Amino acid sequence: MGRLAKAIGTARAAAERTENGFVMDILIIDDHAATREEMASLLDAEDDLVVTGQAADGEEGVRLARQLRPDVVVMDVVMPGMNGIAATRAVRAAEPDTAVLALSNHTGASLVAALLRAGARGYVRKDRAYEELIPAIRAVAEGKQYIGGALSE
């Protein structure tokens, strides 16, 4: 029967947004509430993207990923408690079909390499999120790797 709707509200939102198209479920994990809300607003403006959950830390994010089984997780890297690298590893272990897109202010190539080793399919710098987040989500959802912005090291 395929993927079931996570909740009645999500199913209604998806039905209202697209009649026959595929809708990607997105989980946002970031310790800054304002950042989560800004990303959710940006993503919810797209017909094929629905933010089905938000989490303020890695532990909550992993729990929600297991519960919601999103298509894509947008993951902050630096968070209190479980960081984004450990949370990425846990999400991918629990939900191997879920793509993880990492988001950070840190631009080191070694950080990006660690994220990719943990199972992330992509990386976007936070200061480039408005330009790159939507194409990056679509790319990682298709199984492609996305490395955005300039890296340093």
List the helices and strands and how they pair.
Elements: H1 8-17, E1 24-29, H2 33-44, E2 49-55, H3 58-68, E3 72-76, H4 84-94, E4 99-104, H5 109-118, E5 122-125, H6 129-141, E6 146-147
Parallel strand pairs: 1-2, 1-3, 3-4, 4-5, 5-6
Summary tags:
153 residues; six-stranded parallel sheet; 6 helices; 6 strands; 44% helix; 20% strand; disordered N terminus
What is the number of E strands?
6
State the low-pLDDT regions, or none. Answer: 1-18
Beta-strand residue fraction: 15-25%
User: What number of structural domains do the residues give?
Assistant: 1
The value of Rg in angstroms is 14 Å
How would you portray this structure in words?
This protein has 153 residues and is an alpha/beta fold. It has one domain (22-147): Response regulator (Rossmann fold, 3-Layer(aba) Sandwich). It contains 6 helices and 6 strands; from the N terminus they run αβαβαβαβαβαβ. The protein has helices at residues 8-17, 33-44, 58-68, 84-94, 109-118, 129-141, and strands at residues 24-29, 49-55, 72-76, 99-104, 122-125, 146-147. It has a 6-stranded parallel beta sheet with strand order 2-1-3-4-5-6, with helices on both faces. It is globular and about 35 Å long. Mean pLDDT is 85; it is low at 1-18.
